[in-house]
């Protein structure tokens, strides 16, 4: 059994989608940002950084894993799924996973903050992060012009990237002209396990309020 500590954010959805895709049994512990439950001493023992998602593997001596990319790699290695065993295939997946972790997530997260929540409209900052997010989308589109999924076959790289790209409009970044990225987005979203993962945790407040609260904190 996996204990999943999460919230309805792009990074939280990475973990729940992966658990659904891999068919692992898990218990959901939904944290409230309004109550600052991610900063509670008990949770900080699991993730010293006080961010979601985090997991505890009860079948592996209560081993705790934090950081969404690390969680995806851990679960893939635990199950032997969605991460190739050969050196080149594994590297391709990890390269695109790191592209999301180091590029798409941080840049789109900043676009969200300056476009949606910052008390002042700092247009240079908005332009900077929206343009960089769009550039990263164009990189994804170029890759997807030559492959069905980011690393060839469906993998944890797609699971990491999808929850962010699906919120493109929230960051004010258009997908116009990115037909390959749009095709990929629709294909991933149509997967039953993805749909189940996106429903975790059950909403305790309206969607827009959850996303606003999470994005404003730059959950990572």
UniProtKB/TrEMBL annotation:
Residues 1-83 form the GST N-terminal domain. Residues 86-210 form the GST C-terminal domain. Pfam families: GST_C, GST_N. PANTHER family: DISULFIDE-BOND OXIDOREDUCTASE YGHU, GLUTATHIONE S-TRANSFERASE-RELATED. Belongs to the GST superfamily. This is Glutathione S-transferase N-terminal domain-containing protein. It comes from Zestomonas insulae. The lineage of its organism: Bacteria, Pseudomonadati, Pseudomonadota, Gammaproteobacteria, Pseudomonadales.
């Amino acid at each position: 059994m996996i204990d999943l500590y999460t919230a309805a954010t792009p990074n939280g959805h990475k973990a729940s989608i992966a658990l659904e895709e891999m068919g692992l049994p898990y218990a959901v512990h939904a944290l409230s940002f309004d109550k600052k439950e991610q900063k509670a001493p008990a949770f900080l023992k699991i993730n010293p950084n006080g961010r979601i998602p985090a997991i505890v593997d009860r079948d592996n001596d209560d081993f705790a894993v934090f950081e969404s990319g690390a969680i995806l790699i851990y679960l893939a290695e635990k199950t032997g799924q969605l991460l190739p065993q050969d050196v080149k295939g594994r590297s391709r997946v990890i390269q695109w996973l790191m592209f999301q972790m180091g590029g798409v997530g941080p840049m789109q997260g900043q676009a969200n903050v300056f476009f949606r929540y910052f008390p002042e409209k700092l247009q240079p900052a908005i332009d900077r992060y929206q343009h960089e997010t769009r550039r990263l989308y164009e990189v994804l589109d170029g890759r997807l012009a030559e492959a069905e999924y980011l690393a060839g076959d469906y993998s944890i790289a797609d699971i990491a990237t999808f929850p962010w790209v699906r919120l493109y409009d929230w960051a004010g970044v258009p997908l116009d002209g990115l037909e390959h990225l749009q095709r990929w987005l629709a294909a991933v979203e149509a997967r039953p396990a993805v749909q189940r993962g996106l429903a975790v945790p059950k909403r305790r407040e309206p969607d827009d309020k959850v996303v606003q609260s999470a994005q404003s904190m730059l959950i990572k």
